[in-house]
Amino acid sequence: MKQIPTLKQAWLHTMREILNPELSCKVEDYAEIRDYQISFSFDHIYDLKADKNIFQDYLEMHKVFFSNEKNCFGHNYADAILVPTRKYADPTEAVSEILRNNQTTRKAVMTFIPYDEMKIPCISLIQFLVRDDILNITYYARGQDVYRKFPCDAMCIAEFGEKIAENNHYLLGTVTAVIVSAHVYFHDFEQAKQRIAEADRCVIFTGNLNKYNSYSEMLHEHEIDIYTAPLDIPEIQSSDWKTVIKAKAKYAYEQLKFPVWVDDVSLELDAYPLFPGPYTKSVWKQIGIEGLKLLLTGKPDTGRIMCRMCRYNGSEFECVSGENKGRLCFDRPVENEKMPLNSIFDGEGHMAHRTKAIQKLINKETEII
Q: How far apart are CA 96 and CA 119, in angstroms?
């Protein structure tokens, strides 16, 4: 099943498309895409409140939707919303009542009418549709300033949905925006590009900086950041390395709120195909060097160390991998208990597996897994 993007991901994706001259066209003082549609999940829908500038605009937009207070946008929608029943003055209560009378109705809508001479709301209609006890929202806009207003409009519209879902005990599904003119003004281009660049930056998350000390200069040269946080990423137990590293990448993404690369290093022995593989850390903790010696008694001590790196952006998993072929030398002392394989493995070069993976990352030789 395709992953539904978050509001932040949908916002960045929409700006990328508008700023792409092959997809958009220039009109007056803005670039636009016509008849644009995108959906996003209620999950993490308020994450952008953590951004100071967006939060300030959100507070002003909240006045637009829910009050008659003065605001920086210079208009209000509170008196411009019509609903199909006059029983309730509050449009949220009115829509909740409509859905209580007929849960599958297609008439649970808020219509936005002109609030002054030629003062026409950007939002034209919000429809609340319930299927299988899940509330989904579709809003229609005659036009939307994607850089500045898209996140704020979406969060305010989501508030309507949350209240209606709470009133009627529904689950929350998706929000879909249908925008006749999705645009970014020329004077906001540089800020929009900066936002996109920040979101697209290449970041590697690690709990052990020592693994990347020798690569710091190369990574800095290619604008790749190393990120550390007090975050202990759980490792699920599975014989499938893809399952393991995807789980790590998804966990890091959900905790840190931005895409990061995570890595996983495993030993694969020729004597035991694909073993210990994803279980390397667990096997090492349980049996150590002496246990590995016993396992390989009378068997070849050759194999490979694999470094796999994975990035999750909320919808896709990208991966690179590096292989270091060689053999285990049990007579060597372990110099670093956190990275024992580097001491006892005689391969193509110190950390060759990580070097190869990082080089693929730099060269963008990634694959979707």
A: 28
